[in-house]
Amino acid sequence: MISLPGHGLRVALFATCFNDAMWPETPKAVVTVLERLGVTVEFPLQQTCCGQMFTNTGYAREALPLVERFADVFDDYDAVVAPSGSCVGSVRHQHAGVARGCGRTDLADRATTTAANVYELSELLVDVLGVTDVGATFPHRVTYHPTCHSMRMLRVADKPLQLLQNVRGIDLVDLPAAEECCGFGGTFAMKNADTSVAMGADKAHHVRETQAEVLVAGDNSCLAHIGGLLNRQRAGVRVMHLAEVLASTERDFAAENDLRAPTDTEVTA
Amino acid sequence: MSTRDEMLGRIGAALAGADRRPPPDYTYGAVTPLPDIADTFVERVEDYRAVVERVDPEGLADAVVAALDGAARVVVPPAMPAEWLDGFTELTRTQVVTDDGALSADDLDRFDAVVTAAAVGIAVTGTVVLDHGPDQGRRALSLVPDLHVCIVLESQLVGDVPESVAPLRAAVEAGRPLTWISGPSATSDIELERVEGVHGPRNLHVLLVRDLLVHDTAPDTAPDSARATPA
Amino acid sequence: MSGTFLGMPKFQAAAPEALANSQQRRNLQHATHTIRDKRARVVEELDDWEELRQAGAAIKDNVLSHLDTYLVQLEESLTRAGATVHWASDADEANRIITSLVQETGTDEVVKVKSMATQEIGLNEALEETGIAAWETDLAELIVQLGHDKPSHILVPAIHRNRAEIREIFLSEMGQVGTPPPGDLSADPRDLAEAARVHLREKFLRAKVAVSGANFAVAETGTLVVVESEGNGRMCLTLPETLISVVGIEKVLPRLEDLEVFMQLLPRSSTGERMNPYTSTWTGITPGDGPQQVHVVLLDNGRTDALADSVGRQALRCIRCSACLNVCPVYERVGGHAYGSVYPGPIGAILNPQLRGTTSEVDQSLPYASSLCGACGDVCPVGIEIPELLVHLRTRVVDEQRGGMPSGEQIAMKGAAWMFSDHRRWEMAQKGTELGGRAMKKKDTIGRLPGPLSAWSDARDSPTPPTETFRSWWKREKGGQS
């Protein structure tokens, strides 16, 4: 066990408010993957929200206490991990600016220090733990959408794809026009709903072109938008967070097959 | 208070307490090494769908006549080297008029072609720069006629844009205009489909003259921007 | 400000009509993808692109932070070279100066080089009011002018039109203002360009006055630069007797050498070419060559307001290449008109509220006309952090509206912030989620929702809330920890 890549590392999980309340399976999957790699995972209960929605909508003053809370809660760990490119993007690229904009230079410095230790899941796995094979099995046809903030704020590049490529049984297919925004954009999805849906419709079209069964991404918010459109179309494509794919093992898959009617003779044979 | 003083006052107020930024930490005029500067120039000019030919000095006069493609009336700048026009004879039946500065825009519109020298050729971008010295003439000459035959010497070539500014400085300081020409007039305004030939000369014919005694022998030798001699 | 776009509705209200215009959607999608691919190819050719971008940003930052010094130097250089320099605080003053300069020449028409600054101040309309015709000579501007339309793109103002529409405009309008097109005009871009050539030729040859903008103005030498493709710029800058150039005060560059940076950044970013077909420079008056009356109008029109914002001023680095428009997923679908300005797209969303202020509905809405995807910031040749500025301006809009009767959004945001400011409140709120989840246990998803939530649910299903949040699970499973 000593040789596990995460051994001795104490990592705080920042679940993000959205995942905590709406998509608990995602932070659970993070715990599963990290513990499998030997990491000691902690979940500081004082955490709430990174404030991204407030910041990006123009409510910097409302975001300020959340920036301070984040620094208070998370500045004492080897590393902090969050299963969300956009929340990590906000912590890393906006927290100090919010503090500075509100005249809190002391907090800006503290936010910068804290943010330096905050990682999106694929960054923690690939850059900190040096792992691209997390021992997952996921025998489905999958396509991956690189969310804008993972790609252009965090520059995670192909780290999520490296992780997916090493998943056993996966049939990973390229998503056409992958780098184009899905149109979620936080409150943009509500304030400019028509434009947001027009963008999402094109993304959904490209997803369907791949004939994938599962659309994977590193942000449940984008997935809720694309998945919501796909579901309204009854497209027969489900959406899943990267963490949940990485947490899947052969055992999950066997259990899954026990539960449902055998539809695929090859698999059940 | 004048508008001028008001505007300067507003700028001063806007910048009060601002961090005054220094000029960039950037090396101007860097040389772009190319294996063969003339080859690159020719390839890149062709990319714009201009006609470009390499000629020896002794073949230039005939090449000029051929490039003019039977044009009946040709205008040339006041100080065009005479030997460049030696190819014209009674048989070529071309009327060659030297600009005396009195030709109006309408007069120029009745010429089929213009022949000029150039000041600098930029290989990477396939650009010819005129600094409108006496062998290139005033701007209207190389603008109104529909065919521009432009003679560029290999010794005038530079690698890329950074090397092109220094040899043009003297002309600018003398108050002369510059015209940078990259292919014929073009537009992409309709469905982003490129159409060559709108207002400027619709046809550009570049004659690149081999005037260097030794050229392109050492592929790894960077071209020396000092070779470029502004007219 | 510009008369062209007065009374525009906010972006959100203008967008649905544009989204429903299937012809325009098709035209824009084709055009923006074509040009963004071209840009990507020629940018990839340069190994030092990132270094060039940084140099471009640094040169502009140096200019902006010494703008008073450089403008005075530019004025001296221009005057020494024989040009007359005018200063204009706003659109009205610039239009008055230009109108009287044209009137002094005794002519009743001007030819125009495509210029964002003159569009910004609504010069054509101002000239028309005094009986002076302003002929746009750039092909796309001509299409827009003949079509009684508005530009929808900085570089390709008629990007929203396709060839068949342009043919119709030429056939019905060209003959009313000059040489008509041939009766058998086809929709082939070559034929359309030829019709424009013939139509404009007579205007170029007879024009006494031209009006231009400038891409750059070199302080050290007093040299103005116009970057173009068609040769209409050369015609205007060369043939008339009088040349009037409207130059935004942010266009100044310190030295001639600085052109090497921008003459690499601009063509590759804007048209996706290694170099644009024509670049003209002129330094005041050249005896025997070109206009012998040269005027330069230095335009503020809100630029000093932008300069006063220490975060926002970087928008004044903009060289109007329009690369950000071409990669913007919002612009690609909505087009330029919904932005209510001659500066559409991401740069318009940050520039207009700074130049015009945030008092109108449209200027308040523009910072929100973005999904913050970041594609614009990545392609900007002078490194303007557009997404960051969008957020900065959203904050300004929100802060300016504080103190009055609170809007529904303000109440919701304040409520949410209160909830998140203490984890115990957040836990209480989660109980509600769990109750909802249990109540809807049998459904996988939720369809249409009432009220403000319909903006989400009109087109998208929503997941049902979980019966147990992560926090509850953690406490139950890992109880003692943390």
Question: What structural category characterises the helix and strand content of chain A?
Answer: alpha/beta
CATH architecture of chain B: 3-Layer(aba) Sandwich
Low-confidence stretches of chain B: 215-231
* Broad structural category of chain B: alpha/beta
How many DSSP H or I helices of chain A? 16
Our measurement of the CA-to-CA distance between the termini of chain B, rounded to an integer number of angstroms, reads 46 Å
Strand content of chain B: 15-25%
Shape estimate of chain A: globular
Fill in the CATH topology of chain B: Rossmann fold
Average pLDDT, all residues of chain A = 93
> What name goes with the CATH superfamily of chain B?
NagB/RpiA/CoA transferase-like
What spatial order of strands do you see in the largest sheet of chain A? 2-1-3-4
Count of domain modules of chain B: 1
Protein name (chain B): L-lactate dehydrogenase complex protein LldG
Pfam families (chain B): LUD_dom
InterPro entries (chain B): FTHF_cligase-like_sf, LUD_dom, NagB/RpiA_transferase-like
Domain LUD (chain B): 105-209
Structural features, described:
The complex is a heterotrimer of chains A (269), B (231) and C (482). Chain A has two domains: 11-128, no CATH class; 141-255, Rossmann fold. Chain A contains 16 helices and eight strands. The radius of gyration of chain A is 19 Å and the shape is globular. A four-stranded parallel sheet of chain A has the order 2-1-3-4, with helices on both faces. In chain A, strands 6-5-7-8 form a four-stranded parallel sheet, sandwiched between helices. Chain A has 269 residues and is α/β, with parallel strands linked by helices. Chain B has a single domain (36-219), classed as NagB/RpiA/CoA transferase-like (Rossmann fold, 3-Layer(aba) Sandwich). Chain B is 20% helix and 21% strand. Chain B is built from six helices and twelve strands. Chain B has helices spanning 3-14, 37-47, 60-68, 105-109, 161-164, 169-173, and strands at residues 51-55, 73-76, 95-98, 113-116, 120-122, 127-130, 147-153, 157-158, 178-181, 186-187, 195-196, 203-209. Mean pLDDT of chain B is 91; it is low at 215-231. The mean pLDDT of chain C is 95. Chain C is built from 23 helices and twelve strands. Among the domains of chain C are: 69-304, Rossmann fold (3-Layer(aba) Sandwich); 415-477, no CATH class. At the B-C interface, helix 1, helix 4, helix 5, helix 6 and strand 9 of B face helix 2, helix 3, helix 4, helix 8 and helix 10 of C. Strand 9 of chain B pairs antiparallel with strand 9 of chain C, so a sheet runs across the interface.
